[in-house]
Design goal:
Layout: H1 2-26, E1 56-65, E2 68-77, E3 82-83, E4 87-95, E5 101-111, E6 122-127, E7 145-151, E8 155-156
Antiparallel strand pairs: 1-2, 2-6, 3-8, 4-5, 4-7
Length: about 160
């Protein structure tokens, strides 16, 4: 008799589990839709296409959080232009006693999560991963890191009053 009760409880529990799993699959909880493009572009930006190419400057600084290496980037454009969809290539260089630099490994590309507003500085950061820099024994210092804007989307110069 006790075996039948245990069997009925187990079957009922399995049935409840199957029903709740099916119910969740048919009625998933959908998070609210977020406009991801708002952070990469300024939908209200107004400007004109510049006559020449942009002149980006990328500063890079290494900071450590315990054993974790983090690169902080500061991006500016020499003319104060707006830019969106910025991609930064960054890489490690070994510096010998004569000051000669030798690149170690391949550059890694990082896509910025925000646009560069007119006349401002964009600040971004990324964590360094052993997988991306297998050749390194450590992260070195700020002096070992180089970075540049490798690709970008739309660039606009401010409209000028005539």
């Amino acid at each position: 008799m006790a075996m039948r009760i245990v069997a009925i409880v187990i079957v009922a529990g399995l049935g409840l589990f199957v029903w709740s799993t099916k119910h969740e699959a048919e009625n998933p909880v959908v998070p609210p839709k977020v406009d991801q493009t708002a952070q990469y572009t300024d939908p209200n930006v107004e400007g004109v296409e510049p006559d020449g190419p942009p002149d980006f400057n990328v500063g890079v600084e290494l900071r450590m959080q315990g054993e974790k290496g983090i690169l902080d980037f500061t991006i500016t454009e020499a003319h104060g232009w707006y830019a969106e969809f910025l991609y930064i290539d960054f890489w490690y260089v070994a510096i010998d006693e004569n000051g000669e630099e030798r690149q170690i490994g391949d550059p890694v590309t990082y896509m910025c999560h925000h646009f560069l507003p007119f006349g401002e500085t964009l600040e971004e950061y990324t964590s360094l991963l052993d997988l991306e820099f297998k050749e390194l024994d450590g992260w070195g210092t700020t002096e070992n890191w180089r970075a540049m804007v490798s690709k970008h989307g739309k660039v606009l110069a401010p409209e000028t009053a005539d």
